[in-house]
Design a protein that fits this description.
heterodimer, A: about 120 residues, mainly beta, seven-stranded mixed β-sheet, globular, B: about 110 residues, six-stranded mixed β-sheet
Chain lengths: ~120, ~110
């Protein structure tokens, strides 16, 4: 149980393109979803927390107009990187939790490469 | 400053050796989780510890939560090449805060 599916697994696109990443909880209802960014051989850095039906809460230093998050249902959250540039290249990972105090279950990540 | 100090950052050992990874903080956590991550994949939850002094075993892995719920350790007995990966501790405050991670490489 507790499967989280993230799609796509890899994106390569030109600078200036907007990229959408989907995160789905397949077998449970995720009241909260989290988006992380990870650089090679480093830990996860929380970007934002989204609760179903409400606006996402962004961590300090994360541009909300750059990283658009939508959590329209209890099983789907999306992260859109608007007008992506090479410095946005990274490994983006989502996680989902069924409620406060419950463990987070992670997707397999999306490798974003901006040329 | 890192809320969760994880050590060592990198560990390269021979198959069959034992190892311990430490996760320390000055903060008290309501729970602490350990994850293992392989390259190009998301972290996989290994265990959640909740009670101070709690010890959990998962085959060759032993997890301990400090009495004060500020620190934790992961001990692997007789490491195998398949244990290679990035090990992450994460404390709930209640938002999940990750340690810097320990890259483990087990050579055959």
């Amino acid at each position: 149980g507790a499967v989280v599916s993230q799609h796509p697994s890899r994106v390569i696109c030109k600078s200036g393109t907007s990229v959408k990443i989907e995160c789905r909880s397949l077998d449970f209802q995720a009241t909260t979803m989290f988006w992380y960014r990870q650089f090679p051989k480093q830990s996860l850095m929380l970007m934002a927390t989204s609760n179903e039906g409400s606006k996402a809460t962004y961590e300090q230093g994360v541009e909300k107009d750059k990283f658009l998050i939508n959590h329209a249902s209890l099983t789907l959250s999306t992260l859109t990187v608007a007008s992506a540039h090479p410095e946005d290249s990274s490994f983006y990972i989502c996680s989902a939790s069924s409620g406060p105090g419950q463990p987070q279950h992670f997707g397999d990540g999306t490798r974003l490469s901006i040329l | 400053t890192q809320l969760l100090e994880q050590s060592p950052q990198f560990l390269s050992i021979q198959e069959g050796e034992n190892l311990t990874v430490y996760c320390n903080s000055s903060s008290v956590f309501s729970s602490l989780q350990w994850y293992r991550q392989e390259p190009g994949e998301g972290p996989v939850l290994l265990v959640t510890v909740v009670t101070g002094g709690e010890v959990k075993k998962l085959k060759r892995l032993t997890f301990q939560f400090g009495d004060a719920r500020k620190d934790s350790s992961l001990h692997i007995t007789a490491a195998q090449p398949g244990d290679t990966g990035l090990y992450l501790c994460a404390g709930a405050v209640p938002k999940l805060v990750f340690g810097a991670g320990t890259i483990l490489r087990v050579k055959s």
